[in-house]
Write a structure and sequence with these properties.
102 residues; mainly alpha; two-stranded antiparallel ribbon; 2 strands; 34% helix; binds zinc ion
Amino acid sequence: MNIKTATKKGSNAHRNRVRDPFYQSKQYKAWRKEVIAQSNGCCVHCRDPKIKNENGTYARIVKPGKVTDHIIPIKKGGAKLDVSNGQYLCSYHNNVKTAKDK
Ligand SMILES: [Zn+2]
């Protein structure tokens, strides 16, 4: 019997991200810097009145950003180095978004 089982692990995206040389590249670092600059160093979701904050309310508590995120994930065809596909998020909003992207 030779049954091939396709086991796809989708949960180690973060680890892949650390290992992927793209995230060590000069181009990525330059992109990241631009994204942080365009967000003024603050989480863009905290500032968006349509997005709930960590307390589950719409009150604006703007936290400093922590993670540069691709709005359209690279694995979904998003542009890797387009600053308009980048946003700066606090760790809370990054977690919310990562959960949605799955
Ligand atoms: Zn936030």
